[in-house]
Each structure stands twice: as structure tokens, then as C-alpha cells.
Amino acid sequence: MADYTIKVRRFQPESGEGPYWEEFNVDLDPSLSVLDGLLQAKDRDDGSLAVRCSCRAAICGSCGMKVNGQSTLGCKTQIGEAQEQADKMVGAAGVSAAVADSPIRGEGSDLGSAGNPIVIEPMGNMPVIKDLITDMESTHWTKIRRVTPWLLPHGEPPEREYVVEPESMIDITQSMACIQCGACVSSCLSMEADPGFIGPAALAKAYRFVGDPRDAETHERLHDLADDPHGIYDCTHCFSCIDACPKGVAPMDQIMRLRRKAGEEGIEDPNAGHDHEIAFVKVIEKKGLLDEALLVQESYAPGIKGKLKPSKRGLTETIKSLPTILRPLRKRKVKLRQAIPGLHHGLPKEAMGDVKSIYAHAEEHSEELNLYIRGEEGDDAQPDGAAAEEVTND
Amino acid sequence: MTENIKVAYWPGCVSRGFTPELHGSMAIVAEKLGWELVELDRANCCGAGVIAEHNQELADTLNARTFALAQQTGLAMMNICSTCQGAQSECQQRLDADSAYRAHINETLSGQGLAYEKGKDGFTNKNFLWLLVEDYGLDRLKEQVVRPLSGLRVGPFYGCYIVRPKERLGYGEFPDRDVYLEQVIEALGGTVVEYDGARKCCGFPVVTMNRDTSLRQAGTHVGDAIDAGADCLVTPCPLCHLNLDMQQPEAAKVVNRDLGLAVLHLPQLVGLALGAEPKDLGMGKHIASTRWVEERLTAGAPA
Ligand code: SF4
Ligand code: SF4
Ligand code: FES
Fold it and tell me: What count of Cα atoms within 13 Å lies in the side-chain half-sphere of residue B279?
């Protein structure tokens, strides 16, 4: 048993007051969970402390919350580990600055174990109903429904169940592992800046149906998600949802797969996300290194191959980006040849030959290795010399 | 550790493109620290996650080529960009995870006389920040400081790719990698400023796709740091630098407030403390003025 101080961000709507911090002293084994700590405080100190939970075993998805700023499940986070994390953080870094200095009620921080208190907040990107209970309807469930989260098969339903090859379902097992806890939504940094973003949980769910062999509306789904300016091209690739997810769903990876599939289907989106991706890939194929000016031009007005064909949005965006290009020129930060698309230096010739041969090979195969499905070999796997032999042997 | 640092150095694209002051300041700092950098001048772009989004195998092969070039030198590899770190670690994780996949990738490279071998000579690829703390050491760094950054209030800005996902980025072995910037700022004599954005996203990856979302992120973080009393930000990522510094006047319009906060590359901050001249570190090339930082330092320094 050990003593811990938990510092909870509380909000009691009926009091008419704003949110405030309250510290509780709890006493439990380090291997027990943060949720266990909260329930002990509720039991011993304050029955009005509101927290959602049910299974207490990372199955039901009820207890999403932020622990030391990290979105997670309260029942899956060991309190001992949370204490280590709290001690590591410099002061209250990672805690919402907006409430960091609101008044603390309760018994003060001189109680409990040494070190910083464990900071517990309700999930982010959602309205708070009471204490740690958030309104998941308005942000999470509405967005889940937005992606048509059911199967859309065509033709007459079979007499009994649909029969599919087990192998054809493996690809979507990762997105099927979702328990709808909302931790990823809570952590999403694009959603912080753009609340309209469809977001990680709903997009992971979308992939679950896009990748399902029984679904007949894959193309329509992809079109819908790419056409929405708050859709797949609104994710800023911040990895927050990957670290937040207690089930290894890696929503960001599912979003990247949706983008890849939309690209394969040749879907042009209003955000020019697909054009940007292709532009990047082509610039590296051409020069081996990034040419920023060429990338900007190509993203809006693709022309490396074929004629220049800027879209209307492309022209406006290029004009908007002009001040950004002109300022560094004025400061002599970049040279003129760097600001003119295509003049920037590339790799030496023989190195470019290497890059081109890699492109030729990989664009033909485009193999995907999903570690969630394939798993990692242990470190005791064959060292490289031996492994090469083994491959030729089998 | 006492031996001298010698590494195969991957400068990345942006440090030789739109943020040339990063490449220049790294060279100055390496010399002052006595590090030897063997530049990988034939290596290619890491793909910044975008190539992997398009075609994983392509990204993995391109980066396996870079690793193989580094392994030819027999040295560990160093990068100076959070995004290179993240994009390359992602590919390295897949290559290291599966010997058959690695063999398949190496087949493509074999025509170039190259092969990436897992764990050869203890191969690692570390950002300058990681190398500075883990291999060089904060104590040694402190000894080298000739112009302590006393009184300078610095906000750390990491860049997503160097803090997440933790499992891929070696946090199991090095759990403090997400507080190294704070440790370095303190070792250099500066004061750490706490603000909300230190480990958040600068917004750069979506700047061409959703300019408003992107610049709102950059503007919010810069604004939060100003409100917390920062004199400047410091970042190990040149792409973050583009959104936080080069786009700062545009970001100010989106968040509808005055900004104007200097954003330093990590080697620039280290270089200042090691006694290098701001001008030589390329600080005049920034969009947001760095004059305030320079004044702070020269005011505090003994003549
Ligand atoms: S990676 Fe994309 S979806 Fe995931 S948290 Fe970041 S912005 Fe949101
Ligand atoms: S993807 Fe993961 S974090 Fe997001 S709702 Fe599903 S289980 Fe929770
Ligand atoms: S209580 Fe069910 S997931 Fe935590």
C-alpha cells in the first residue's frame, strides 16, 4: 500500500460556479488503477465526485479521462506509474493552462506521498457535464454516426450469414478492436483547432467498413470522406491518438490507409490533400531531396508531368502563400533560386539513379507491413547474416 | 561517457532549403563541442511521413538506403529534425521487426551495393537532442557554457514526431526523452517556460490542405508561450520552425492577435550559450525578430 495525492478537476453544474481543482489523499497498492483511486476518494471523502465506469478492466470504454495530461482509460492506468509520470513532469506541464491556476479546494498538497500530485481531468474536445463526465454524444457519437457505421452490401442478402474468407477480414481487425472510449478524440490536436474535424475514432470506424469485403459502397464512402473539408485530409498527423488508444487501434494509421485508398481510387479532394501527397512523392522522385517551392507549386498546380493545370482553389492558395515566400527572400534567408519552383539543388546524378530504381521497384510492389497484425520478431530472432541464409533456404 | 562524438550526419532537406541557418548553426556547435560530423551527402529525403502515406514500401526502402549509407561509415547516425527522426524511426521499426521483409527491401538495394543490417555495430539513429543528453551528457555540456542564458525565458517546442508514439521512439529505454529540452535549457543556464503547447502539433503537415486549422495551431501555441512570459521558443524541428516562425505573421492574422516571438533552432540556442555570435548562427534570417533575445543576452554578459 502507498499514499497518493490525486488532484481532480471538478465541475458541479448545479453550484453555478466554474471548474476548480480538488486534491484527495488515497491509499492503495501501486498496481491498482487511477480509477480505483478515484473510487476510493468517492467512497471515503466525497460521494458527489462524478466518474463514469463499469467493467474496470478496459473493456467497456466508459472511463476515458486525462491523467497527467495524457488521454487514456482510468482503469488501465496504474496509479504507481501515474505517480512516476507526475514526478517527471516539470510542475504541471501538460495540464490545461486555462485551469492550472484556478483555486484549489480541499486539504492542500502537503498531504499524501512525496512528489507532485497525479493530475486528473475530464476528456478534452468534449463539453463537461459534471466532474469527469463528458458529453460524448455531441462530439463522439454524432461523428461516429456521420461515417455510416454499418455494412452497406448490395444485392439480395444470403439465406443465412455472409460467408467470407477469414484472411480477407484480417486487415480490419485492428479497427474492429475499438471500444468507443473516446480517448483518441480527447487527445486529437486537429480537433482542438477545428472542432468540425470528423476525428480519429469515427475515421478508424470508417476504415473498418471501407476495408470490409462485404461492403459494396467503398468508393462512395471514400468520396464522402475525401470531399468533406473536415475529413481525412484534416488530420495533422500528430500521433496523439496512437498513444491515447488503449486498444492499439492506431486511428492515425487507419486515416493514412483511407488516404491511400482514396488516392488509389483517383479521388480529387477539395483540400488538395491527394495532390499534395502526389506532389511530394514526385518531387522526391525527381530530385531525391525536398524542394519546398516546387512542392507548394505542385500541390496547387500539378505540372511536373503534363501541362500546368491550376485549379481555382490552387490559384487562391498560391497567392495566399506568396507573402510567406517573399518574407524570407527579403531577409536573405533563402536564395532566389530556392524560391523559384524547380531550381533548388537535388542529389548528385548517381545517387538519383539509386532513388529512381527504388521508385521503380517499390511502386510496383507497394507492400504494407502492419505490425499490429504481423507482430514483431523477438530480439532473439536470427542475426542478419543468418536470416538472409534462412530466407533462401525456405 | 568521455569519448568524443563522431557520427554519420543526416542534415535533412529543410535545413539546406528554407531553414539554412539550422545547417549552419549545427556546424558551428559541432565544432565548439568537438564533435565530428561525417555528412551523408548522397542520402535522400526521409519522406516526412507523406511518402509512407502513399506507399509504405517506398518509404521503407528509401530510408533503408540512408541507414545503409550510414552503416558504411561504421558510425551511429544523427539527424537534426524531429520529422526525420519520426519518419525514419517508423521505417526502422518495420525493417527491424521482420527479417523476411528486411531481406525483401535489401534485395532492391543490392543493385546499389547497399544493405541495411539490423543492429550492425549497435546502429542507432538519434536526433541531436537525444545525442546531446544521452551520449554527450548534460554535465559535459554545462562545462562548455561560456555565456549562460541567465534570465532568458525559453519555451520548449518538441514537434510531434519526436515525442509520439512513445513505444516506437525508444521511450521504454529512455523514458525522459520528452523532457530533454527542459533539461538542456536549464543546463545552458536558461529558465524553462511552461505553457500548453510544448508537445502539441505546430500544424505544418496540413498547411497546404487546411491552412486555417494549421495556422490556428501555430498561432495558439506562440500566443500561449507569450502569455506565459517566454522570450523565445526553441525547437529541434525545422518544419515546426517553418510554421512557428516563417508563417508567424500569417498565423497572427488567423488567431487575431499580435504575436512576434523569436523561435530558435536547438543548435542556435546551444550555440549562444557556447559563445557563438548570433549573426554567425543565422539569427538575423528569422522572420520573427530575435533582437530581444540578443539584447537580453548581451545585457547580462560580462564585457
Ligand atoms: S493523428 Fe490526426 S486524428 Fe490522430 S490525434 Fe492527431 S490530428 Fe487527430
Ligand atoms: S480508437 Fe481507441 S481510443 Fe479511440 S475510441 Fe476506439 S478504443 Fe478508444
Ligand atoms: S471501466 Fe470499463 S473501460 Fe474503464
Answer: 1
